[in-house]
Specification:
378 residues, two-stranded antiparallel ribbon, 2% strand, mainly alpha
Length: 378
């Protein structure tokens, strides 16, 4: 019973800590004068993914018998969860927001007098026309239902959509190389880990140079100083650092409870390593995205996921290549294949301008397919 209580308690603590973290990191981005997208791709992503990379480093350099397996499994399981569950969470949240807006609009149309100037009932839509879910990659998506246009909040502008598609392409190139190296063995393979570190350095530099600056009036007050229009740098740094520590500790406790839950449910260690543990370690990124979508900042939510994917594709992989043999077995290859399929699916939709909330939520199907395939091979 105590394990279940710890799981639930950690989940609540993680959500609250992430809410304070995204609040602080937006102000940090403003004070550092980085672009608003870089707040998600760099500041938030590095903040939540760096502790996981440290854990991977400790695992592969420790003396434990299964340290190398844990490190390599984390390097494959992390991108899988981010590319499927995290994106699906954003899509599902957008669908819920859209459904809530439509329901409220229809309820409002019933309350308005018929024929009022700002009313728009069924007659406002051509007979026989169906509601079409607007693509996320367009900036003019809106729906008419009830008392007027109901705009789908968090719609991506075209530039952000192209940027996300570009990031998916970069991830694919790096991830294909990462998986390919897991199939071959040669003497100087560990040195290639340095290329992965260099690849992230290039991505980091490029993201910091792109985009403009956010305006202070676009941000919610800092939670540590709610009455100040512009918080102090010390307060911003303190809130960022404290929430990161809370996120790191709560995530590790959450992972520990899942490691207990696996054997308790009769699950083999590889299932815990590839299916359950990555869910916990990527929970901060997923919750950050959920919070930003709830605030109507879908571009930051998707940027955070994209940035986390680039970190997961490079830093843990570089550590694994340097300190382990980096050879994949069947479960690891299945994880790599599911990740590649999910990213290709999202990239195709982005390039075609057909990525909607429903299709984004559909990314979860790739994680479900991996779970089924893993159960078959074990």
């Amino acid at each position: 019973m105590i394990h279940v209580a710890l799981l639930l308690g950690c989940a609540v603590i993680l959500y609250l800590a992430c809410e304070w973290f995204v609040n602080a990191v937006e102000w940090l981005g403003l004070q550092l004068k980085v672009g608003p997208v870089a707040v998600g791709t760099i500041l938030a992503a590095v903040g939540t993914a760096l502790p996981e990379s440290v854990v991977t480093l400790v695992a592969v350099t420790g003396s434990g018998a299964h340290g190398a397996d844990i490190g390599v499994g984390a390097a494959l399981g992390g991108p899988l969860v981010v590319a499927t569950v995290a994106y699906a969470t954003v899509g599902a949240t957008l669908l819920v927001r859209r459904w809530t807006a439509l329901r409220a609009a229809r309820a409002g149309s019933v309350a308005r007098p018929a024929g009022s100037p700002d009313s728009a009932g069924p007659a406002a839509r051509p007979a026989g026309s169906a509601e079409v879910e607007p693509p996320i990659g367009t900036c003019s998506a809106s729906e008419v239902a009830g008392p007027g246009p109901v705009v789908l909040t968090g719609v991506l502008p075209e530039a952000a959509s192209k940027r996300l598609a570009r990031d998916q392409t970069c991830f694919l190139v790096i991830f294909v190389l990462k998986v390919g190296l897991g199939l071959v063995a040669f003497v100087w393979k560990p040195w290639l880990g340095l290329l992965f570190f260099a690849a992230y350095a290039v991505y980091f530099w490029r993201e910091l140079r792109g985009g403009g600056e956010a305006a202070a009036d676009e941000l919610e007050p800092l939670k540590l100083q709610p009455r100040r229009e512009v918080p102090s740098r010390l307060a911003v740094l303190t809130q960022t650092a404290v929430t990161l520590v809370v996120i790191f500790v709560a995530s590790q406790v959450f992972v520990g409870q899942l490691e207990w839950a696996g054997p308790a449910m009769g699950l083999p260690p590889v299932v815990v390593a590839l299916l359950l543990s990555p869910i916990a370690t990527e929970l901060p990124e997923t919750m950050n995205a959920l919070i930003w979508v709830r605030q109507g900042k879908t571009h930051l939510a998707l940027a955070n996921i994209s940035g986390a994917m680039m970190i997961q594709a490079t830093i843990p992989s570089g550590i694994g290549l340097v300190f382990t043999p980096w050879m994949f077995d069947t479960p690891l290859m299945l994880a790599g294949a599911a990740t590649l399929a999910a990213v290709i699916y999202l990239r195709v939709l982005l390039r075609a301008g057909r990525l909607t909330a429903g299709r984004l939520a559909g990314a979860a199907a790739f994680y479900a397919a991996f779970a089924v395939a893993l159960g078959v091979v074990l």
